[in-house]
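G., the chain you wanted modeled:
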Amino acid sequence: MNIRLTRPTVAVAALVVALTTTLTTAGPASAVPVTPGTYSSAGATRVLDTRAGTGAPTARLAAGATLIFPATAGLVTPVSALALNITVVDPTASGFVTVWASGAPRVSGSTVNFLAGRVTANATIVRPALDGAVSVYNGSAGTIDVLADRTGAWSGGGPVDPGTGGALNALTSTRLVDTRATGGALAAMAARKVAVLGHGGVPATNVSSVAVNLTVVSPTASGYLAAGAEVAQPAARTSSLNFLAGQNRANLALVPVNPDGTITVVNYSAGSAQVLVDVLGYFNDGTPSVAGSYLPSTAFRVVDTRTTASALPALTTRRLAVGFDTGTAFVFQALAVNITVVTPQSSGYLTAWDGVGGLPSTSNNNFFAGVTSASSTIVPLNPDGTVTIYNGSYGNLDVIIDIDGFVLADLTGNVAPQAAVKRAVASARQFSAHH
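Predicted structure as tokens:
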């Protein structure tokens, strides 16, 4: 979340110092739901910052080196998986980082792909070691600083009951597709199905959606990937991963599964692209009913400031309606979203949260001037039906928010919980249709 500056003014320098020294501590222990596989938004917490000695010694991570950090610090119950946002700062060479459970062999996938000198971030879901430790590997020929912001956690405490609709079953990251080895590059405007059921640890039945890391490699033109439960149309409005020509990029996606056991990936660009798909976990089929369970959705757009509001000015916070009111927002504690920053005038970062309390010292999307950038995350929903975003840059920018799914709140005592869920989802989709 740093901004690279050459000759900063006093004001700019002060902001950079604030950004690089302000830390979010673990604070008091925070409980996660007792049902295995259910999610809790415990508030964004910085659990690793190699610049400041948070979670690891104050030292840059060397080329080809691995560090281990305590990713579950402050959580008191068993944790099966973590939602993390990983940021690479000031890399001296291009490369990638991989994040996985400490003590296990390093997985083949990459979590963040970055270019020399560029701050780059990506969200991921990772299963930690039993002691809560997570490993980070620097797959570049240079040194890097690395940050990890924890945005939430899924509970452990035993096996996940297959009958618990919407519960996450975390997996060790496994590569399902690498078009460089099989099938060839994805052509311009082409779609390809990726088999997920029965592969990479995903069962052959009782699965509603999967958590995957999408990576695009050596695209010949700028564009975006869309991942969904069916072949998208050329006029599709949502994206899962935005990229520039020649740029390797990665992003988390929570994707509903086709009836035939596949997910569909579409290359919305004028050129070809190599595509990697790594599976991180899967969600049980069935009707979500437990607090923290996940309800997948075909992606739909609820915010586009280019058409429904003005651009967000520099260093400004804005509360955004995302399709709920006080009569429907109580149904969900959080949303799975893809947040896209469009043509920012200046480099910087964006932070998204429920607007409760002060501005977190974490980031969800790091971007560069003039470059459209998307990042998936799970963001808590304010009881008034809004999310809040902060533009941590010195220029204007537009923001797009696409909803990929919903995390249920505690509906105990509600006389018709499933009717309330349907009403809330319908409210969001109706809002989307008019925005």
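Residues 1-27 have pLDDT under 50 and may be disordered.

Shout if anything looks off.
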